[in-house]
Amino acid sequence: MERISIVCFGGTYFLSLLADLTRLKWGGKTGWRIVPGLLALGLCVHGVYVAHRGFSMGRLPISTMFDSTMLLAWILAAIELYLLLRSEKANAVGLFITPLVLVVILVGGLFGPRTAWSEDWSGASRFWGTVHAGFLVGGAACTFVAFSAALMFGAQSRRLKKKSSAKEGLALPSLETSERINRLAITLSFPLLTFGLVIGVMLNYAIGLKQSRVAISWTDPKLLSAAAMWCVFAALLNARFRPAMRGRRIMWLTFLAFAFLIFTWIGIGSLVPTAHGKPNVAMLTEGQNP
Predict the structure, then answer these.
(1) Mean pLDDT, 10 residues at a time, over the chain (290 residues)?
(2) Are the beta carbons of 87 and 112 closer than 8 angstroms?
(3) For site-directed labelling of 159, which of 183, 191, 197, 269 has its Cα 20 to 30 A away?
């Protein structure tokens, strides 16, 4: 049943991408009318699936990599639909965001562990662990949007250099619009990621006080990678508001930050052993004595 649900909303998103590709090749406004409808349908099915997962677990569906990727994909699809409906004319936003949605669903469905990192936690520990994950998923969603905006900026910049008209392909947001979306997404992603990381550090420290040892070593590769990622995002935010750092430089920094996010979230765990996200390290329960 789970696979059928994922195929249903994933297939609907894929159909919306095909409709966008059809408009890219043959033009016309038919695909433009179909895309928002398909996205809305996929969002409804996807939302029901995520809600069902949450009710069945009795908590926010975010405590496993599988659930967090499904929620992240839903947020990205919702943002895409908002941008499409907000636009006054047909544009190519879907060609940049929908593939990311599909990749997130595919990676989560095929490789995402379904074992909760908070399985042995209870009370405040589980609550703050969920808040920690929630902030990180929110920050990741904003980073994905910033990455999409950087791609749109690059595509539009290349089109303008070649002096190509919008009639030769789908209309792209202006450079100013792409920069504005990128700036807003970066401005939101940094505090969300910061809050998520700080809560994670405090939670790890609290577990250490209870157990006389931290759940995850401070030299764990995942924690070191997260610290490096935070530094990259801090540099990106600082550069984002410097007048001298605009245009392509910011977009390349956005690509770097996105790469660090993906590496920290997925890549580091596949390269070196890490205790982060393993349920056997989450041994803290309310009232437990050292």
Answers:
(1) 85 92 68 82 94 84 85 95 80 89 90 59 73 92 95 88 62 86 93 93 78 68 88 89 77 91 78 57 42
(2) no
(3) 183
Return the pLDDT at 289. Answer: 42
Phi–psi pair at 146, nearest 5 degrees: -60, -40
237 touches 190 (CB < 8 A): yes
Among 79, 134, 72, smallest CA distance to 103 is for: 72
- Residue 232 to residues 90, 138, 203, 236, 259, Cα–Cα distance (Å): 35, 18, 23, 6, 10
Written as one string, the DSSP assignment of 97-135 is HHHHHHHHHHHHHHH---S-TTTT--HHHHHHHHHHHHH
Half-sphere exposure of 178 (CA within 13 A, CB side): 26
